[in-house]
Amino acid sequence: MYRSHTCGQLRLADTGTSVTLAGWVQTVRKFGSITFVDLRDRYGITQLLFNESLNARLDEQPLGREFVLQAKGVVNERSNKNLNIPTGEVEILVDDFTVLNKSAVPPFTIQDDTDGGDDLRMKYRFLDLRRNAVKRNLELRYAVNRAARNYLHEQGFMDIETPFLIKSTPEGARDFVVPSRMNPGQFYALPQSPQTFKQLLMVSGYDRYYQVVKCFRDEDLRADRQPEFTQIDCEMAFVEQEDILNMFEGLVKNIFKEVTGIDYIDAVERMTWEDAMWNYGNDKPDIRFDMKVTNLKVPSTVFMAKQEEVKQSPVAGETGFKVFDEAETLVAINVPNAADYSRKQTDELIEWVKRPQVGMGGLAFIKVNADGTVKSSFDKFFNEEQLKSLAAYCNAQPGDLVLILAGREERTRKAISDLRMYMGERLGLRKKEEYKLLWVLDFPLFEYDEEGNRWVARHHPFTSPKPNQIETMIKNNPVIENAADYLNHPYANIKANAYDMVLNGNEIGGGSIRIYQRELQEKMFAALGMDEHEQQHKFGFLLGAFEYGAPPHGGIAFGFDRLCAILGGSESIRDFIAFPKNNSGRDVMLDAPSAIDDKQFDELQIKLDLK
Ligand code: ASP
After folding, report:
1. Considering its fold, how many domains does the chain have in total?
2. What is the pLDDT of residues 279-305, one digit of tens each?
3. Do 235 and 363 lie in a common domain?
4. How many other CB atoms are there within 10 angstroms of residue 609's CB atom?
5. Index of the ligand 1 atom closest to the CA of residue 194
6. How far away, in angstroms, is 535 Cα from ligand 1 center?
7. Atom of ligand 1 at shortest range from CA of 459
8. 315-335: buried (b, 16+ CB within 10 Å) or exposed (e) per residue?
9. Quick one: pLDDT band at residue 116, thresholds 50, 70, 90?
10. Tens digit of each residue's pLDDT (9 = 90 or more) over 215-249
């Protein structure tokens, strides 16, 4: 028996018990003739006391950091208690010990605030994983996993594995490909998600499926992406959107309850995609704070339902101020209690929006002073009355600061959203301990792909259009005659039965009600520019399956890593993955990817000829 207890187990009540512990040496402290060792394992730290009688053996076999040690002894009440740790009231009076294994000096300290930089920690990730901070993250990840599985199991979902070696059908992201030795010259792809498999499982009658599953996407890695990541992937048959929203609201609430103890009794808010874009400039708004966007001017081709409203804006027509008059879109936010911003502070904001990531030419502002007078950055062009009416239209109260952006629709809308988030952060309105869940509904079915001047699926090609817009999709030619005018194409306004779940400004899950009739699926593929041959080649199996009694179905997938990171209060999903890759998609511990042997190429009948 290597151990009778763990290093996190013993308490005052165990005093006098003979125990055997095994673990890693955290620290060795020698005081005169006695030696203290902190012994650590996954469960905690226990102090060992080696008295004089063991000195000769300790001299013979000195203990170093991270040595694997087995110690036998009796539990003793400590005179100098450490009440910060659960085992801090006791120590073990060691009477025998065995060094089970030695350790080289670790390249960084195995402590909460380690001296190891990111690269070093990743290279020695197996040591990094010994640290409490990282262990806590993995424990949280497992708790989320369990809470999800328990809930889904109770709801009758079945975990069914789907293959990793599949067919390459790139749509959206790039596939990772794997050569097949037994089929020379042919390649598998790693799944970007089990999407088509879970739909086939619905055709097979497994009407509630789930999987906590790896997905692979060969994308350029923006700051916090991983080439392989995990989804909680779900699908249900015989459901409408409302059924899905209720079921998965339940899932997320259960995760919250079990992992954070927060009993989420509020219904999750709901918002259409259009309202999210209109009011927040963003399809995953952080609704922990208000600061909604005021739309002062928008092009006539978007937000059709809002066109009448925007005509009421005091700057909808000519104003004599070129920046406003020439802008396609004019949007504002009202920042409460910021009218006293100094020149330096407003200059800072101007510089902030001019940064390439935001890409604005500048920023106009109106200060509504506490006494009701106004001061703006464009006083030359607006008189006091005009400024007051504009500020009032933006809901400004005395003491507030109105920030206005002008430019092309897409960029300006994104910029006002960025600015809103930035100001929310500055004013401390994005509180870490507050969680706000939101469903964003009715996403557009298509997205314009500038490079190819064509329509691509906004979610994926299996997403069903809103039933009353199917005709619009079928009747109209997908070809975009005039790229600059794509917003006028009838496809631009078709909405989908697609939904995202948003938590504190992060998309944590997304899904849709699917197409389940062959004819409609073919029409959808055609709308995306796929001819019959390509449809058959890429998705023949799915079209075929739809001929054999496919039930109405829909589903969702949650980004498991992201959900864990948010619940753990971290910005980075890497902290919640045992063996993550770096920003260049490398595993620095394995040094992968790497070259392969000539023999392997021979077996694959592949010759490397790098361009
Ligand atoms: N497979 C989809 C995705 O990965 C999610 C879904 O539609 O269920 O985004």
Report:
1. 4
2. 999 999 999 999 999 999 999 888 989
3. no
4. 5
5. 1
6. 20
7. 9
8. beeebebebbeebebbbbbbb
9. confident
10. 999 988 776 899 999 999 999 999 999 999 999 99
